[in-house]
């Protein structure tokens, strides 16, 4: 499997720089992390994941469950050209659940990450009842997008763009809403949970429960904002990532 299909490197990094694997939210793509890559280079090399079925991979079939997606990503990551360098994971929303699954697999493979940054997502054991946005019509999906403010409002009036976005969004909502951690419940990797103080998808008590899933150090940071708090708080989030990774003596 060609790693370049899955992993995008937008900026060069210093020799030996730590890698940060960034996993997008539902409906998201690798390009969401381009500004993060620019801000962290050259001290940290951002590896932005491109899921099948979107942008330049739109001809490929979607993957609609997170354990399978983690199984596909694992050999790509282990075969990556920089695999001999330390690695941390950052996932937002659905990406945080995927990062958890991938962290467990990396530990099992003898390549544990330095840190799991879980952003805008309740802990794997904290289910939000019967979520079924993925089974509803397009208007319900659009309403959810507006509620979470995760998509440029200009796109919501662009019918052609919406037709490109909605299939990936529906697929990812299915993956996120049906996800249950039936294989792994506990990791050793330290976890830093980040969230917005008014995020309707990630209540603070449910984010705090990430502490129950690791035997490593746990920290939680709460920022002003909703589900996509990290857009408005980008500078603060990037500072947290940089400071944390520098603490490992790797950047």
UniProtKB/TrEMBL annotation:
Gene Ontology molecular function, alphabetical: hydrolase activity
Entry-linked Pfam families: Thioesterase
Keywords, sorted A to Z: Hydrolase
Q: Which SUPFAM superfamilies match?
A: alpha/beta-Hydrolases (SSF53474)
- From which domain of life does this come? Bacteria
Single Gene Ontology BP annotation: lipid biosynthetic process
Residue ranges occupied by any Thioesterase TesA-like domain in the UniProt entry: 21-245
> Looking at the keywords, is Oxidoreductase present?
no
Q: What family is this? A: Belongs to the thioesterase family.
Tell me the protein's name: Thioesterase
Q: Species name for this entry? A: Streptomyces roseirectus
- Organism taxonomic ancestry: Bacteria, Bacillati, Actinomycetota, Actinomycetes, Kitasatosporales
């Amino acid at each position: 499997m060609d790693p370049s299909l899955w992993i995008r490197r937008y900026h060069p990094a210093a020799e030996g720089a730590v890698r940060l694997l960034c996993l997008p939210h539902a409906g998201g793509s690798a390009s969401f992390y381009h500004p993060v890559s620019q801000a962290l280079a050259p001290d940290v090399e951002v590896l932005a994941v491109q899921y099948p079925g979107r942008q330049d991979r739109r001809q490929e079939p979607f993957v609609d469950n997170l354990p399978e997606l983690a199984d596909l990503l694992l050999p790509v990551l282990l075969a990556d050209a920089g695999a001999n360098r330390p690695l941390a994971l950052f996932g937002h929303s659905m990406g945080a659940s995927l990062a958890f699954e991938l962290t467990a697999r990396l530990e099992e493979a003898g390549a544990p990450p330095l840190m799991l940054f879980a952003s805008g997502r309740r802990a794997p054991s904290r289910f939000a009842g019967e979520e079924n946005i993925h089974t509803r019509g397009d208007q319900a999906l659009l309403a959810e997008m507006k509620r979470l403010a995760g998509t440029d409002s200009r796109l919501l009036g662009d019918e052609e763009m919406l037709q490109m976005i909605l299939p990936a969004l529906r697929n990812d909502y299915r993956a996120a809403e049906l996800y249950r951690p039936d294989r792994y419940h506990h990791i050793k990797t330290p976890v830093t949970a980040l969230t917005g103080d008014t995020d309707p998808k990630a209540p603070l008590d449910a984010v705090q429960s990430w502490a129950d899933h690791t035997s490593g150090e746990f920290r939680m940071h709460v920022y002003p904002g909703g589900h996509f708090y990290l857009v408005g708080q980008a500078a603060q989030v990037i500072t947290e990532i940089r400071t944390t990774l520098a603490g490992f003596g790797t950047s």
